[in-house]
Every structure is written in structure tokens, then in C-alpha cells.
Amino acid sequence: MILTVTPNPSLDRTYELPRLDRGEVVRATGERVDPGGKGVNVSRAVTAAGRRTVAVLPLGGAPGALVADLLDAQGIEVAPVPIAGATRSNIALAEADGVLTKINAPGPELTAAERELLLDTVRRQSHDADWIACCGSLPRSLAPSWYADLVARAHTAGVRIALDTSGPALLQALRERPDVVKPNAEELAEAVGRPLGTVGDAVKAAEELRELGAGAVLASLGADGQLLVDDAGTWYGNARVDAVRSNVGAGDSSLAGFLVAGGVGPAALASAVAHGAAAVRLPGSVMPVPGDLDPAAVTVTAEVPLDRALREPAS
What we know:
The protein is an alpha/beta fold. It contains nine helices and 16 strands. InterPro entries: 1-PFruKinase, PfkB_dom, Ribokinase-like, Tagatose/fructose_Pkinase.
């Protein structure tokens, strides 16, 4: 079972547009409403892959109730933490050429009692977990050290932790040695304090995160593929994608693919790449089912193209 923790979930509305013209009335060609937040997306992807998951998340107000209903309709077990504030609502504008514009609300503040209940719910739900995936931004009331505390508690309970966050929350959590961290290129660049222009730059940054405490680094490089750096070595994976429809949740789908394949080694990286590639071919934040995957389009190698320039350099 994969337990996910999403401290700042959302209700996500995605509009598909032919083109975004600022200041004009734009008519959407498609609309979706999905439960959102990185951990929520991981749970949705794990469920789509046919595995059990439990999603821990604070929920409040009408948006929170709708998030719970949508997850229940998808067969996802929810361990809700009731809060007084309303769950945030986010908007994504997906243009026909693949450009995505996101508008993310800040989210509610949690009271001291709600913060403690969130930690206690994770503790109670983690007994049967093979992995805990802690994902996304923190609400305004949670200190950057909150993830570090959660990692320490999970390790005390003997559960492996995968962490997908950024900024001070990531750096502080590294001291507690999370088993896997999953930054994208921008988050890698932010963590090491310098721009990344090549795959080799990303490898070096990932190695530095391991020196700071990460057991393994699964790095998403967008159209340039993914990296896995761990005790056994470094692997590079990519996949052929003919057309990108939406990259919302693609990184979360990759993390789910990595964890359902065991969370270790090049086979898990291949699963991560396959899930991420499938996700970008789907609308909104739809998560791929096994039939959407194309393992034959995935390449994983230990011969990392260090000099390859990133098509989207990270600054």
C-alpha cells in the first residue's frame, strides 16, 4: 500500500483553449474538474495502476467536500483531516500548442489542533504502508521543518519515505534522510543555488542532494527525460512522445510509476518514465491506466548524455 500525504490539496479546474489571448473573452473547448495536489495525483495514479493507496489530506468547505466525493468516485480511500478553512481551488489553462498556465491559490491556514491531527492521522494510517509519499507545498501555517518531522517519524516507524517538495521544506527534510526525493529541474536548480544547462549539470545537482541526505534522487527534466541517482549509480531515461496534451500531474504520475515498480533501480525508473510520458498525452490531470503505457517507447541507460543541453534550462 502507498500512503500519500498532501498538506495543501486543491480542487483543480482545467480549461482547454485554442489560444490564450490576454484581455479577451476566450471560449474553452474542454473543461475538467479534478481533485488536485501532488499527493492526491500520486494516489490517483497508483489507483489507476491497480494498486491500493490511502490519501491523507486536510479538507474543508464545499471545495473540500467535492474533492472527497471525486476521490471516492475514483475508488480512492481517503483519510480526511477536517479543517475549518476551505480547501483551495486552482485553475489551469491548457492551450492547443501544449503551453500551460496555472493559477494556484495559497490555501487555508491550519490551526494548531488541525496540524497535530494531520500528523496523528499519518501515524495511524502508516502501519500497512510500503511507502509514504509526502508531496507538494505546505499550507501557510506549517513551518518548513514540518516535512523533516514527518520523515523522522516515518523512519522511526520503519516506513520508507518519498518526498516531492521544494525550497526550504526540501532542504530541511534532507537532514532526516528521505529515501527518495523527486525534484524537477527548476527545483534542483533552486536547491543547489545555480542554473542547470545540461543533463550533466542536473546529475551533479542530484549528487549534491544525496550528499545532503537524500537516499536517491529521481529528477524530472521535462521533455529531456528523467534521472535516477542512488547508491548503485546513475541512470537516464526518456520516452518518445508524439504530442503533448497536458503536463498537469505528469511528475506525480512518474513518482507513482516509480513507487509501484518498487522504488529502486533502473526498472523503477523505466516505469516512472512510462507513466510520465503517458500522462502528458492525456487531458487535464487524467492519470494513465496500464493500457495507456507504451514501455517500448522508453529507453533507460547507464550511459548518461552528460553534455546534452536541456531544452528547458533551469535557472
